[in-house]
Design a protein that fits this description.
The complex is a heterodimer of chains A (109) and B (115).
Chain A: E1 3-5, E2 9-13, E3 18-25, E4 29-37, E5 44-49, E6 53-57, E7 60-65, E8 70-75, E9 84-92, E10 97-99, E11 103-108
Parallel strand pairs in A: 2-11
Antiparallel strand pairs in A: 1-3, 3-8, 4-5, 4-9, 6-7, 7-8, 9-10, 9-11
Chain B: E1 4-7, E2 10-13, E3 19-25, E4 31-38, E5 42-49, E6 56-57, E7 65-67, E8 73-78, E9 87-94, E10 105-106, E11 110-114
Parallel strand pairs in B: 2-11
Antiparallel strand pairs in B: 1-3, 3-8, 4-5, 4-9, 5-6, 7-8, 9-10, 9-11
The chains are: A mainly beta (109), B mainly beta (115).
């Protein structure tokens, strides 16, 4: 089988740093992606890690440890517009992309 | 510059009725996917296609059928709708080729209610 676990909700204040963790169990692992989804909107791609280590894209960074089946999304200098749901997703060698249940981030002023 | 377009965006059905959701992409992507999203459940893969004329089952395929007769279109059918199929449906596509991240490009979603 396969499973992804991430916290259901995280809260933080503007300007802070927040880390959203994701642990996964799957066969045929290719890589880990992160998506952002605002209420009523479609998911949009944030980052992808195929190899161990940190990938940085502006205020967002994503980390992967294949040996630990673990990754995280790091959001720095939080802004109100970052309030959204964040999904980790496992890319498998069967071309499937399987999503976690999502983490709702609320940023307070 | 349309990207991925889903029609219809909203639909209300009665139990037992049938309908088809259409997904069209203009990015020449090989792979296309149908997901459903329910509160607290994240996105669950229904069916997907790795190219024209191909389809494969995802995590929750029961009660749905799909077809990919043309590369740019991926149709999701409900033969006999049930209240459990009330959901928001997202279509997505992605390109293939070396170095790609597997990034999915999503449509805006289709909200289906089955009474």
């Amino acid at each position: 089988g396969q499973s992804l676990e991430q916290p259901s909700e995280v809260t933080a204040v503007e300007g802070a740093i927040v880390q959203i963790n994701c642990t996964y169990q799957t066969s045929g692992f290719y890589g880990l992606s992160w998506y952002q989804q605002h209420d009523g909107g479609a998911p949009t791609f944030l980052s992808y890690n195929a190899l161990d280590g940190l990938e940085e894209t502006g205020r967002f960074s994503s980390f992967l440890s294949r040996s630990d089946s673990y990754g995280y999304l790091l959001l720095q200098e939080l802004q109100m517009k970052d309030s959204a749901s964040y999904f980790c997703a496992v890319r498998r060698n069967t071309d499937k992309l399987i999503f976690g249940t999502g983490t709702r981030l609320q940023v307070f002023p | 510059n349309a990207g991925v377009t889903q029609t219809p965006k909203f639909r209300v059905l009665k139990t037992g009725q049938s309908m088809t959701l259409l997904c069209a992409q203009d990015m020449n992507h090989e792979y296309m996917y149908w997901y459903r999203q329910d509160p607290g459940m994240g996105l669950r893969l229904i069916h997907y296609s790795v190219g024209e004329g191909t389809t494969a089952k995802g995590e929750v395929p029961d009660g749905y059928n799909v077809s990919r007769l043309k590369k740019q279109n991926f149709l999701l059918g409900l033969e006999s709708a049930a209240p459990s199929q009330t959901s928001v449906y997202f279509c997505a596509s992605r390109r293939t080729g070396g170095g790609n991240t597997g990034e999915l490009f999503f449509g805006e979603g289709s909200r289906l209610t089955v009474l």
